[in-house]
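Example (one chain per record):
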Amino acid sequence: MLLAGLTEAVDTARYWQHPDETDVLLAQPGIRLALGLVAHALADSLAAWWGPGFLDRDRQCFVQWTDERIGLPPDFRGSARRLADWKAAALADERQAAKRPENPAANWGGWWWSTPRPSELLTTTRSMPELGATGLLLVEDGLGWKQATVWPLLTRPDSRVYEIDGPAAWTWLAARYPMDVSLSKRHDWWRTTGIAGPWLVPDWSAVAANYDGVHLTLWGYLTTAGLAFAARPSAGPSVAVLERTVLAGWDPDETYWLNDVLTPGAAPSNWRSDGYGRWSSQC
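Predicted structure:
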């Protein structure tokens, strides 16, 4: 039941639009107060059920969606090149965004994720009993995929993993490795937060110099995703301006691997959804 509720909450996360009527209702002080005890009880249950928040190195799996075509084995090499391509594209998008309307309320959108595109780097989530990987269920703004191949992967024992376990860990990452995306995120993140920026995201190519992977814990997701947090003060024209950051497009328990530290594990398995949130192995 907890997993089903979490799946629905993650699937309805869309950080490029205004809060919908359900979001607005749940944000009312009276509703928040009434549900506070329930939220704390659920959080405790999730923590106990989910287990340790840190990366479970022995159960990492890559989910490969196969609705449209059968996928090839994951590519374990070339992370540095893919990160360089991501950075070049992100900087080009920021330059191009200078031509977009300055008014954050203008009808304009773009790449609202604060992560590399999933197709650009390998990502993993843990496997669970009777579920090939949590990545089959916990997908922000999913596209309704119903077929997947799950590839168990091994992580190098000495791989360095940074844990995002809450807002402080996320904002530290954005402040330590800053990339200015104020123009390209201006419209999407204003709609979801009501704040006009300026905005930062981590420069993932710089993060790779110190960490091989970055893991978002379940608690980190629940406390951080979709919210605007101050990363650092920036000198404005007359007063300090807060540079903020949003964690968006990152699924619970997902790890982005920035360096080539993964190798094949056990044999892959094929999975199929019944369309109602239940997945079954086809092997």
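Caption: The CA atoms of residues 42 and 49 lie 10 Å apart.
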